[in-house]
Each structure stands twice: as C-alpha cells, then as structure tokens.
Amino acid sequence: MEKLTHYSASNLSAEAEVGREQWNQQPSASIVTKAAENIQRRGITVIRAHNGETALETLKDLIPLGAEVMSGASTTRLEIGYDEYVNSDKSGWNDLHRAIIAENDEKRRHELRRRSVTADYFVSGVNAIAQSGEIVACEKSGSCVGAWAFAAAGRVAD
Q1: Span 3-44, pLDDT tens digits
Q2: CA dihedral 97, 103, 104, 106 (to 10 degrees)
Q3: Digit-coded pLDDT (tens) for 120-134
Q4: Is residue 3 part of a domain?
Q5: Is residue 153 in a domain?
Q6: How many structural domains does the chain have?
Q7: Is 71 helix (H, G, I), strand (E, B) or coil?
C-alpha cells in the first residue's frame, strides 16, 4: 500500500492477536487470477491495479469530470490517496460526501444523503474477496449497503 493508516492490516494484526505471517501476505498471482475470473463469472467487471498509485490513476480515468461521487468507508481508499485527491478539489467531481458534511440545514442534508446512494459513482471497499468470486462487505452504519448492490450508476470497489 502507498500509505499506511492506523486501520491498515499490518497495524491491526497485533491488536487482533493474529499472526502477521498468516494474515498479512499477498496472495499468489494464480489465486488472484482465479478470484478475478470467478468474480467476472458473476457479471462484475474486474480491473486490476498492481499498486496504490496505479489504482488511484485508474479511478481518475474511470470517473469523468463533473460526475457525482459518493464514498463509503475504506482503508484502501485512504492508503492509495483517494480521499486526499477528492478532498483537494483536483478531481473535478461533485463529491456528495463533502456536500453532506458542509450542509447545515437538516432537511437539505437528509435530501443529499438520499441522493448520495444514487450517485453516478460510489467508491468503497470490501472486507474480503474469496477465490470463489464472492465479495464480502460489512458496514457498521448500513449507509453503503444500498449503493453497493443497486444504486450508483458506476460501481468501483477496492
């Protein structure tokens, strides 16, 4: 990863009392290929990036100027520099998360939250990807669940 955060796996393994050797290693190329093939069989497009810098550049290329974007919590997003980029105004995207936070009127903020799950692009993370192609995603508040499965016109998961 490009930037380690408090929530990066390498910083949490001691707290979770799991061995770094077992849980903090990259899968082999054949395992990644198998998982990608199985994900695609489920009708999901897979775009692979070899590092965080490439992942961020891929997102920049995928999301057009002026698009509405909403983001769900993601350590990977932080590690690749996505949050820093979208918050810098360099993206040219309409960041609904920032609009929600900046809105002081409760009724308008509620309308923005409802609109956020139908953003053009929803950038989020998942907790695990199995070799079978199953994607595991858990979300504390539930605010991402609708957008993951149904809402955003473009779905980009890390």
Answers
A1: 767 666 666 666 666 666 666 677 899 999 999 999 999 888
A2: -80
A3: 888 888 888 899 998
A4: no
A5: yes
A6: 1
A7: strand
